[in-house]
Automatic annotation (TrEMBL):
Keywords: Hydrolase. It comes from Sphingomonas parva. This is Cysteine hydrolase. It comes from the Bacteria. SUPFAM superfamilies: Isochorismatase-like hydrolases.
Length: 273
């Protein structure tokens, strides 16, 4: 007889409906979603989130911090020199700090994802170069500003902002990327899968570009994706962030805050019933 765990939309013993099959299944309930019903012995907790709270094991999660670099978040970087407001990107820094501190308490991996392009730019095609250079006199990737070349490996602009450097741990994972998505052309997927990571908590800038493409790619690969809304920012208009937050909770996974990320509640037997 086939296992009930292979039957999508089957009724579950805990009163839910099964989504997917095998070890990747979820249990959907009226008031929450269980992302790890096959991990009864794990450190199961319940996070408040939208559209619904979710239950997961802390052992399966990682915090992914995206593009918190000088060129986006510091004065004199590419964002400011391109006529955009870098201070809007800096608004993510306090939330990223809270998220990192919470991830450390949870015992989660912290994964730093950032642009580190080759100095000769051989890794970039014209569409990507154009997205950073819309006019002949605008400095693009690899071109020099006051502090050095834009978003280039080893440059000031490609470095993590000073406020976050003290929070980097020697065991953290570093992923150098050459496109907006942290998955494209990198070993992020291999690192996550070899470490048994299924759930990604995403933070950083720009929420409507590199954060959202990484979240979408995570969703396409069947990772559980959670957007930490107050640990993200963008130099784009407000409606761009609003659109990402809407789709994060309605399409790609869940949306929550760093406050909720820092203070989940024990679930099930661990909570006394």
């Amino acid at each position: 007889m086939p296992s009930q765990h292979r039957t999508i939309y089957a009724s579950t013993e805990d009163g839910g409906i099964q989504l997917a099959a095998g070890s990747d299944r979820w249990h959907l309930h009226d008031d929450y979603v269980h992302l790890a019903p096959h991990h009864p012995q794990g450190r199961l907790v319940r996070f408040e989130a939208e559209l619904k709270p979710f239950v997961d094991s802390l052992d399966r999660g990682a915090l992914v911090v995206i593009d918190m670099q000088n060129d986006f978040c510091a004065p004199g970087g590419w964002t400011e020199r391109s006529g955009l407001d870098y201070r809007r990107c800096r608004a993510a820094i306090p939330g990223v700090k809270r998220a990192i501190e919470a991830a450390r308490r949870h015992g989660m991996w912290v994964v730093w994802v950032y642009w580190h392009n080759r100095p000769d730019l051989r890794n970039l095609g014209a569409p990507t170069l154009y997205s950073f250079k819309h006019a002949p006199d605008q400095a693009g990737i690899g071109e020099n500003l006051e502090h050095g070349p834009v978003l280039t490996q080893g440059s000031w602009g490609g470095a993590i902002v000073d406020e976050l450097k003290p929070l980097i741990d020697e065991d953290d994972v570093h992923i150098e990327k050459v496109r907006m998505s942290g998955f494209y052309g990198t070993h992020l997927d291999q690192v996550l899968r070899t470490q048994g990571i299924n759930t990604l908590y995403l933070a950083g800038v720009n929420i409507d570009q590199c954060v959202t493409t990484t979240m979408e790619d995570a969703y396409f690969r069947d990772y559980n994706a959670v957007l930490l809304t107050d640990a993200c920012a963008t130099s784009s208009p407000d409606f761009c962030q609003q659109a990402v937050e809407f789709n994060a909770k309605n399409c790609w996974g869940f949306a929550t805050t760093t406050e909720h990320f820092a203070s989940p509640r024990p679930h099930g037997a661990q909570a006394g019933g």
